[in-house]
């Protein structure tokens, strides 16, 4: 149950953040806005680290598969692409396409056991579920 609530909160926060970041971009620029997002997130993380345990930062250099440390770099591009898609499509359409893309890529990652995830077998019902999500986007976007 906790995982479901956390995922729902994450989705809601991502949509709100996307709207906020898009507005900041309109009043500044894409990279200024993206930089601010990353810098302010870093500040929150430092404060949380100071108050919640202060685990060793050196553990980062012991991470196997160093490419896993690129999450922050990917995060910067996530911020940029969310801002651009919300600006071009509006929050609802952009969020739907983002979620379907996340679902499809996550399923491919699981199917092939990429990046250390457990490999799962292909299931037609999961593909059908994604097709239903795409149909939902088409219906949502459908104009009279």
Number of domain modules:
1
Structural class: mainly alpha
Q: Identify low-pLDDT runs.
A: none
Q: Roughly how many Å apart are the termini?
A: 39 Å
Proportion of residues in β-strands: under 5%
Helix content: over 70%
Largest sheet: none
Give structural notes:
The protein is an all-alpha fold and 144 residues long. It has one domain. It is built from 5 helices and no strands. It has helices at residues 2-27, 30-52, 71-89, 91-112, 124-141. Helix 2 (30-52) packs across helix 3 and helix 4 packs antiparallel against helix 5 (124-141).
List keywords for this structure.
144 residues, mainly alpha, 75% helix, globular
Layout of helices and strands:
Elements: H1 2-27, H2 30-52, H3 71-89, H4 91-112, H5 124-141
Helix pairs in contact: 1-2, 1-3, 2-3, 3-4, 4-5
Short précis:
The protein is mainly α. It has one domain (2-141).
């Amino acid at each position: 149950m906790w995982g479901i609530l956390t995922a729902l909160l994450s989705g809601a926060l991502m949509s709100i953040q996307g709207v906020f970041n898009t507005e900041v971009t309109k009043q500044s620029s894409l990279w200024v806005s993206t930089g601010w997002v990353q810098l302010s997130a870093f500040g929150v993380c430092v404060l949380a680290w100071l108050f919640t345990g202060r685990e060793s930062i050196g553990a980062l250099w012991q991470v196997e598969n160093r490419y896993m440390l690129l999450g922050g770099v990917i995060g910067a591009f996530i911020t940029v692409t969310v801002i651009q898609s919300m600006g071009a499509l509006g929050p609802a359409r952009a969020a739907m396409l983002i979620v379907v893309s996340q679902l499809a890529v996550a399923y491919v990652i699981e199917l092939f056991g990429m990046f250390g995830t457990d490999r799962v077998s292909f299931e037609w019902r999961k593909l059908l579920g994604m097709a239903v999500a795409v149909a939902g986007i088409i219906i949502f976007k459908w104009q009279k």
